[in-house]
Structure prediction request, 279 residues.
Amino acid sequence: MRRFAPPRTPFAPWLAVLAVTAVLAVLACADVGVAQAGAARDEAAAKPAAKPTLFQLRPTGTFADLPETSFALTDLLGGGVGKPKGFYVLLEALEKVKGKDACLLVDLSDPQLGLNLPQVRELERAFGEIKARGVKTVAWLGGSSSLHYQLACLCDRIMMADMGLLDLKAPSLEVMFMKDLLDLVGVRASVVRCGDFKGAVEPYVRSRMSEHLREHYRAMLASFNQDLVERIASARKIEPGQVRKLQATRLFGAKAAKAAGLIDDVTRWEDAASAFDAV
Prediction:
């Protein structure tokens, strides 16, 4: 039986060489791709991280729900304190505070800042929404009243100027009685009062406060102070009884306020933005 061997071709060695060359080329390309990817990672790591968006808010003066209709005779007699600003404009500005890793720095250094209790409650809701959007919030205090401090407690962190002073007093009320003065000039007020807690006219018809009006004001001030104490206790993780003791002390320098747990840092305004690293 004859065997038939496959014909030998002169191209077989060249085909083998080409195959080996192709494999080497693919491996070389893979090495280059890995090297380029590694270089890209090194370059990305070398680049400084992008800074977060920093919002700054400095509320000044008094705020009114409807500033165009606001008028107080006492402001006119006292020389005026400037036209009040729109409170809802402030809320609209806060709605724009958003963005990944954004930060809000609130400058509460204006001594003439004026907000009523319902407005503080509305700001509490607005700051809750800001925090829910992932925004870090820091407050900076100078010379501060209870109002300034309540607003600061809406933020994640509180800073105070090294020369700052916190006046943590409980709400109070002063009433001027003018009946004796009116008697001197011959003026007599004629009013009809029905029921308790109708004491708005007492300054014109009495020389001193009636007992039932005094009790009404005490209950009202106790309600106001309870709201203040609960807001501070919740924000600073302090027992309400301890907050009341701090109110009895009332005045705190920056270092004393930090020791009492009322603030987090003592710093200058120029260094305030760096506090976001610690939030």
Summary: The chain has ten helices and eight strands. The longest strand covers residues 157-167. The first helix runs from residue 12 to 46.
